[in-house]
Design brief:
By secondary structure, the protein is of the alpha+beta class. Helix content is about 35%, strand content about 20%. The protein has 28 helices and 38 strands. Helix 15 packs across helix 20 and helix 22 crosses helix 24.
Length: about 900
C-alpha cells in the first residue's frame, strides 16, 4: 500500500483527515498480528488457491466475498494474509482499505468507526477524495464525526466516493462483523447496498455463523460465500502447520527435549479439533508450566471444548459449594442481559449472607470452574459455547426442575426484594419537577441491586409455566404475591423504572402481564387491577419518563376518579392541591399521546404490519414509534426543510419521506439508516408512495411533475409531465402496473408505470369530476376502480379503465389518505372505513349528480373532527386540543397528529356485535 501521499494535500485537507482519524487500521493490523504471535504464511496460503476466492478475484460480477466460520477458526489471520497478498499484486493505482472490528475496544466496535477507518485509508491513498468529506467538514468541523448524525453523514460521503468516476479500482475489507457492537444492522445493510454500486470496488467481509448476519447478507447480489466448515481439510492442514510452528517456539523457549516436544506436538494435534484458538490458549498455558512438569500436566487439557466443560462440571458437583455454584450458573444462563455482581446478590438468598464486598463475590464466581468471567464487575459466560454446553449437555445438573422453575425462582425473589426495598423518592430528589435527564445515581445507589429485578421480573414470570407448579399458583390468585405487589408497590416500581430509564419497557411489561393473566378465572380482581395498572402507565408514560416524581402528582390527579391504582395510592396524592381536576369515572379510549416533535405534525402512517407508526413534522424530522408502547424508536434527521409525507414500504422494511427541501429520502425502518436521498424535483415533494412490490417509489411535487424512482438506487426511471398545478398525491395500482396522481389542477391522471404514458385524465371541469384540488387517491385491489377525494369534500369512485365516475360520496371534510380493502367493499381513509356496499341499500339508484353520505365500517373520525365514531355511530367527543390536523386508522386504533408536535393514539375495545 502506498503511504505518505497525504503530505501533498492542503492544510485544510490535513485538518479534515486528522479529525476523521479515529484509528489507523494499519496499526490495528500490526497489533493483531503481534498479539497472535505473527502471521504464518502456511496458515492462510490455502485460501488463495480456493475456487471461491479465485472466483471473487477473477469474476467481474462477483463483488462481495463473505468468509464465515465458527470462533477460533482463524478468520482474522486469513484476512491479514489476504491483505498482504493483495498489496503485493495490486497495480500502482489500485487501492486497499480495510478495518478490523473488535468488540472489546470501544474505538473500533461500531458501524461509524468502520466507515471512519475505511475513509481514512482511502483518502490517504487518493487525497483528491477528501473533497467529498470537506463539503460537510467545512461547515461542521470535528463534530461531523462525533454527533448523533455521524452515521448519516459518513454513509452519504462514502456513497459519493463510490460513485465518483475518479475513484481507482478499490478493495474494501472488513473483519469480524460479529464484533461490531453498535449498529451492526446498519453496517450490514450498508454493505449489501454499496457492494452493488460500483464495478470498480470489490468487498471482502468475515463473520461468525450468525443467523442475523446470514439473513441480511443473503440479500446481497453478486456475492461469493466461503464457509470454513466446508473447507475442513484445508483448515485442518493450516492448523497442523500452526501447531508445528507453536511447538517449535515452545521447545526453543522452554528447552524441551525430544520426548517432551513430541508429546506436546502429539497432544495438540490430537485434541485441537481444527481450532486455532484452542491451540493458542493451550500453548499460552504450557509456557507458564515448568519444563519438568509439562508431561504430567498435558492431560489437564482435554480434547475439544466440550470435554473441558464436562471436567469442570464434574469438579463443581464434587465441591462443597456445588448447590450455590449450580444456582449461580442457572441464574446467569437465563437472565436476559449480563448482570453485575451486586445484582447477582439479589437473585439468591444465600448470597445475601455473604459479606458485602466485591472480592468475596469474585471468589464465589471463581468456584464456578471457568464457565464465568468478570469484566468491570459484570458477570459473563467465558464464551457462548460454555452457555450452549450447559443447556445441551449439563441441563439436568444445572436445571434439575427445568428452566421454568429457575425463572420462577428469579420472579419470586424479585417481588420479595422489591417489596421490602422500593419506596417513594428513592433518590431523594424531593422536587416534584426534577427532570430525569438531570438525575445522577447517588453513592451508594439504593437501586444498584434492584435494577435488573425491576426491569425483568415480569419477563421471568411469563417464562414460568404455572401449570407445572401447582404449589406456586397462589402467587397469581387474588391476594397472591403479584396482587399484593401491585396494590402496595406499583407507583414505587414505576418511579424506579423511570430512574432506570426503562418506562417504555414498563409499558411493554404491563401489556405482557395483561395477556399472561387473561383467562385466569381464579383471579378476577387481579385481572381488573392489571388492566387498570396498564392504562395508568400508558396514559402517563410521557410525564413519568421525563419527571419521575410526577407519578405521585400529575399521574394520580389526571387519572379517572374510579381508577383502582388512584384509589390504592390516594395517600400519595399531593395535599397542596385543594381543588383537584374533575375527572371522568373511567379511562378514556385514548391510550397515549406521543410527544417529541417540537412543531406541527403534517403526516402520520402505520407500517403495514401495524407494529410501528411514522410521523413527519415541520421540525424537519421523521419519528418512528412503537405503536403498542408509544416509545419513540428513532428520530430520523437529514431533511433540511418541512417533512410533508411519510409512507412505509409494503414489506414494512423501508420508510420514505418527502420534504420541502425538494428531496425524497428512503430509510431502513429497522436500523433507521438513510439508504438513499433522491434528488431531482425542483420544488417541494408533496407525496411519496411505494409500489406494492416495494421495487419502485413515486413522488409528486409542487413542480407539477411525478417521478418514478428505483427504490434500491438513486436512479430516476421516469418523469411524468402533464399536470398544470401541484401534484398532491400519488398511488400505485396493486399490480404495480399503473400509477395515479391527483393535482391542484382538479384532475386525476392514470399513467402506465413502465412507459410513463398517460392512459386517462379524469377531468375536473364537468359534472362527473372534482370541483377543487385532489387530495387523495387509491386503487382497488383488483385495479379495476379508483377512489379520489377533493377539496370539494367528496369521494368519487371511478372505473380505472374507462374513466367513468361510478359513485360520488359526500364526506364533509378533505381527506389526505385512502385505500381499498381487499374485497373492494370498503374504502379505508385516515378518518375511518367507508362501506361502499351500504350504498346498495338505498331506496333508489344513485347517479353521479346525486352524492350521498358514506357509511363507515369500524373506527372513524367524523367529518368535522369532533367525534370518534364506530360504524358511523358517535362514541367519543374530542376536546378542541385533541382535534386532529392529520390522522391514521388501523383496525381498532387511531393515531392523531394534533399540532404542536404531538401524536396521540386512541384504541377502542368493545363488543361490536
Amino acid at each position: 500500500m502506498r503511504e505518505g501521499a497525504v503530505r501533498n494535500v492542503a492544510r485544510d485537507d490535513q485538518e479534515c483527515i486528522q479529525d476523521l482519524r479515529l484509528t489507523d487500521p494499519r496499526d490495528d493490523k500490526k497489533r493483531i498480528e503481534d498479539t497472535k504471535g505473527g502471521l504464518l504464511i502456511g496458515s492462510y496460503r490455502w485460501i488463495l488457491e480456493s475456487s471461491d476466492f479465485r472466483r471473487w478475484r477473477d469474476d467481474q460480477q462477483s463483488r462481495l466475498l463473505w468468509i464465515k466460520g465458527d470462533p477460533g477458526k482463524g478468520k482474522t489471520m486469513l484476512l491479514c494474509g489476504i491483505i498482504n497478498e493483495l498489496n503485493k499484486s495490486m497495480t500502482k493505482t489500485d487501492q486497499l482499505s480495510y478495518f478490523f472490528c473488535q468488540a472489546t475496544d470501544s474505538r473500533i466496535n461500531s458501524a461509524t468507526a468502520v466507515l471512519r477507518g475505511l475513509l481514512y485509508l482511502l483518502v490517504n491513498q487518493q487525497p483528491s477524495l477528501v473533497s467529498h468529506i470537506r463539503k460537510k467538514h467545512d461547515h461542521a468541523g470535528k463534530a461531523l464525526f462525533e454527533d448523533a448524525n455521524t452515521w448519516v453523514a459518513l454513509s452519504e460521503i462514502f456513497t459519493d466516493i463510490l460513485q465518483d468516476p475518479v475513484l481507482h479500482s478499490t478493495y474494501v475489507i472488513i473483519d469480524a462483523l460479529d464484533e461490531c457492537v453498535a449498529d451492526l444492522p446498519k453496517l450490514l445493510d450498508f454493505i449489501v447496498q454499496k457492494s452493488c454500486v460500483s464495478s470498480r470496488v470489490k468487498w471482502i467481509v468475515s463473520s461468525r455463523n450468525w443467523p442475523d448476519i446470514e439473513e441480511r447478507l443473503e440479500r446481497a447480489g453478486h456475492k461469493v460465500r466461503l464457509c470454513l466448515e466446508l473447507n475442513a481439510e484445508s483448515v485442518s492442514t493450516a492448523v497442523s502447520i500452526f501447531i508445528q510452528h507453536k511447538v517449535l517456539q515452545l521447545a526453543d523457549k522452554k528447552k524441551y527435549d525430544d520426548k517432551t516436544r513430541g508429546a506436546v506436538l502429539d497432544h495438540l494435534s490430537m485434541h485441537a479439533n481444527d481450532t486455532f484458538l484452542w491451540v493458542a490458549l493451550v500453548c499460552e498455558n504450557l509456557e507458564k508450566i515448568p519444563r519438568w512438569n509439562t508431561l504430567r500436566r498435558l492431560d489437564e487439557f482435554p480434547p475439544g471444548l466440550d470435554s473441558l466443560y464436562e471436567r469442570m462440571i464434574e469438579q463443581i458437583c464434587k465441591s462443597d459449594s456445588a448447590d450455590l455454584c449450580k444456582q449461580i450458573l442457572a441464574s446467569i444462563a437465563i437472565v436476559y442481559r449480563p448482570i453485575t455482581l451486586k445484582e447477582l446478590t439479589s437473585l439468591d438468598k444465600v448470597l445475601e449472607d455473604i459479606p458485602d464486598d466485591l472480592e468475596s463475590l469474585r471468589e464465589i464466581i471463581g468456584l464456578c470452574g471457568s464457565f464465568l468471567t468478570i469484566r468491570g464487575d459484570v458477570v459473563y459466560f467465558v464464551h457462548q459455547s460454555a452457555k450452549d454446553f450447559l443447556f445441551a449437555k449439563a441441563f439436568n445438573e444445572i436445571f434439575p426442575s427445568g428452566t421454568e422453575e429457575a425463572h420462577y425462582a428469579i420472579f419470586s425473589r424479585s417481588l420479595k426484594v422489591m417489596s421490602r426495598t422500593l419506596r417513594r423518592d428513592m433518590y431523594s430528589l424531593r422536587a416534584f419537577g426534577y427532570p430525569a435527564e438531570q438525575v445522577k445515581q447517588p453513592d451508594p445507589d439504593p437501586l444498584v441491586e434492584l435494577r435488573y429485578l425491576c426491569i425483568y421480573w415480569i419477563d421471568h414470570l411469563c417464562d414460568w409455566n404455572p401449570s407445572s407448579s401447582a404449589k406456586y399458583k397462589v402467587d397469581l390468585q387474588d391476594g397472591g404475591a403479584v396482587d399484593s405487589f401491585l396494590r402496595q408497590q406499583y407507583l414505587y416500581w414505576l418511579e424506579a423504572l423511570s430512574l432506570c430509564k426503562s418506562i417504555s419497557k414498563g409499558v411493554v411489561l404491563m401489556e405482557k402481564l395483561e395477556v399472561f393473566m387473561q383467562g385466569r378465572a381464579d383471579a378476577p380482581a387481579l385481572n381488573e387491577l392489571v388492566r387498570d395498572a396498564r392504562r395508568f402507565i400508558m396514559s402517563h408514560k410521557w410525564v413519568i419518563e421525563k419527571t419521575p416524581l410526577q407519578v405521585y402528582t400529575s399521574a394520580l390527579l389526571f387519572s379517572p376518579a374510579r381508577s383502582l391504582i388512584r384509589g390504592l395510592f390516594k395517600r400519595e396524592e399531593p395535599n397542596w392541591i385543594t381543588i383537584k381536576p374533575d375527572m371522568e369515572d373511567k379511562w378514556s379510549p385514548c391510550l397515549q399521546t406521543l410527544e417529541g416533535h417540537w412543531s406541527d405534525v403534517w403526516s402520520v402512517a402505520f407500517s403495514h404490519d401495524s407494529a410501528r407508526l411514522a410521523s413527519g413534522s415541520i421540525d424537519r424530522t421523521v419519528k418512528i414509534w412503537n405503536a403498542s408502547s408509544g416509545a419513540c424508536l428513532s428520530t430520523l434527521e437529514g431533511h433540511r426543510d418541512f417533512v410533508r409525507s411519510v409512507t412505509f414500504s409494503h414489506d414494512s422494511a423501508r420508510l420514505a419521506s418527502g420534504s420541502d427541501d425538494r428531496t425524497v429520502k428512503i430509510w431502513d425502518a429497522s436500523s433507521c439508516a438513510c439508504l438513499l436521498t433522491l434528488e431531482g424535483h425542483r420544488d417541494s415533494v408533496m407525496s411519496v408512495a411505494f409500489s406494492h412490490d416495494s421495487a419502485r417509489l413515486a413522488s409528486g411535487s409542487i413542480d407539477r411533475t411525478v417521478k418514478i424512482w428505483n427504490a434500491s438506487s438513486c436512479a430516476c426511471l421516469l418523469t411524468l409531465e402533464g399536470h398544470r398545478d401541484y401534484v398532491r398525491l400519488v398511488a400505485f395500482s396493486h399490480d404495480s402496473a399503473w400509477l395515479a396522481s391527483g393535482s391542484d389542477d382538479k384532475t386525476v391522471k392514470i399513467w402506465d408505470a413502465s412507459s410513463g404514458a398517460c392512459l386517462l385524465t379524469l377531468e375536473g371541469h364537468c359534472d362527473s369530476g372534482h370541483l377543487y384540488s385532489v387530495w387523495t387517491i387509491a386503487f382497488s385491489h383488483d385495479s379495476a376502480r379508483l377512489a379520489s377525494v377533493s377539496d370539494d369534500k367528496r369521494v368519487k369512485i371511478w372505473d380505472a379503465r374507462s374513466g367513468a365516475c361510478l359513485r360520488t360520496l359526500t364526506i364533509g371534510k378533505t381527506l389526505h389518505r385512502s385505500s381499498f380493502y381487499i374485497s373492494g367493499s370498503y374504502v379505508h381513509t385516515e378518518i375511518g372505513t367507508i362501506d361502499i356496499n351500504a350504498l346498495s341499500d338505498l331506496p333508489s339508484p344513485l347517479t353521479i349528480s346525486e352524492p350521498c353520505s358514506p357509511q363507515y365500517q369500524g373506527l372513524a373520525l367524523s367529518a368535522d373532527r369532533v367525534w370518534i365514531t364506530h360504524n358511523s355511530e358517535k362514541i367519543m367527543w374530542l376536546p378542541s386540543e385533541y382535534r386532529p390536523s392529520c390522522s391514521a386508522v388501523s383496525r381498532n386504533t387511531i393515531s392523531i397528529g394534533v399540532g404542536m408536535g404531538r401524536v396521540w393514539i386512541c384504541k377502542v375495545e368493545f363488543d361490536i356485535s
